[in-house]
Here is the input.
Amino acid sequence: MEYVLGIDSGGTSFKIKATALDGTALGEYIGPTCSHYQLTVPYAEMQISQNINTCLALFGGKRNDCRFIVAGSTGHDCDEDDIIISDLYHGLSGFSCPIITMSDVELAHYTVIGGKGILLIVGTGSIVFGCNQKGEKARVGGWARSLMGDEGSGRYIDAWALHHVSRWFDGCRNDSILAPMIANHLGLRTRKDLMELSIEMSTPPWVSPGLGNLVNEAAQKQDRYAISIIRNAVIWNCKMIIDVIKLLNMGNDAQIDVGVWGSAIVKGKIHCSMLQEALAEYQPNVRFVMPSISATDGAVRYALKGLDDMH
Here is the structure.
C-alpha cells in the first residue's frame, strides 16, 4: 500500500503518522526522542529507523511503498544542523521517495498558518518565526537559556512565579492567591524547600515546574501578581512578534496572520486573550490564529501537498 509519513521529532518524543494517499490514517506511533543534541548521531539514526519501523508494523507498510516524507525536528537551528538532520533521514535505507526535513518551528508554522505569516511559540522556551509573501524568513528568540532566550515563555513565567513565592516567604505578599497555590502544588513548606528547588532548576537538565496553568488560574481569580506576570510575558511576546514584522517588512500588509503554538499560550486562556488584545493595539492588521491540528497532521498535509505538486 502506498503511503506518506509525517514526523514531529521533538526533544522528549518522536511522533510519526502514516496515511494513505487519500489521507486515510494508517498508523501513528510515539517513540523516544531522536534529537542529535541528546544522542550521538549514529544512535539518533538508529532510533529514527526503529521508530519508523514500529509505525510501519502497525499496518504492514513497506519502505519502498512510501511516496513522501516530511520531518520537522528539534535542534534544527543552523546550517550545520540542517546538514546533520538531512543526512539522518536521507541515509535511511529502503526509501526512494522525496524527503523534506525542516525545523520543528517551521513545521509548526506551516501547521498553524500554512507557511505564510508569523508564528509565536510559547512552550518551555519561546521563539517567533515568520515568512512573508516573498518567501523571506526571519526568526527571533529560541536561544539557549544561558543567553536569556526564554522571553515571555513558560520558563519565564515559572521564574517570576517562584520569585513571587520567595517574596511571599519574606512576608511581603500576604494578600496573594497565587503564592499558596504554588507552594501547595510543589510541596514548598519552608524557605529551604524553595532554595532546594531553585538549585535543582539551575543544574542540568534544567527542569522547569510548569506553573503556567496555576498562574492563569490565579489570574482568572483576579490575583494581581498573576496578572502582572502574564502581562509582562505578553509584552515580551508582542516585542518579538513586532520585531519579526519589522524584519520582514510586513507592517503595511493588508493582513498579517499571527498563529500561536505551545502549551503555555494555547492552554493559558488569560495569557492568550491578553496577547490578542495587546496585538490588536500594537498591530491592528493582525489576524490571530489558533492551532486546529497536530504537528504530525501538519507534516502529513505538507507531504500530501508535495506529492500532489509533483503531479
Q: What stands out?
A: Strands lie at 3-9, 13-20, 25-32, 66-73, 99-103, 117-122, 126-131, 137-141, 256-261, 286-289. The chain has a mean pLDDT of 94. The two ends are 19 Å apart (CA to CA).
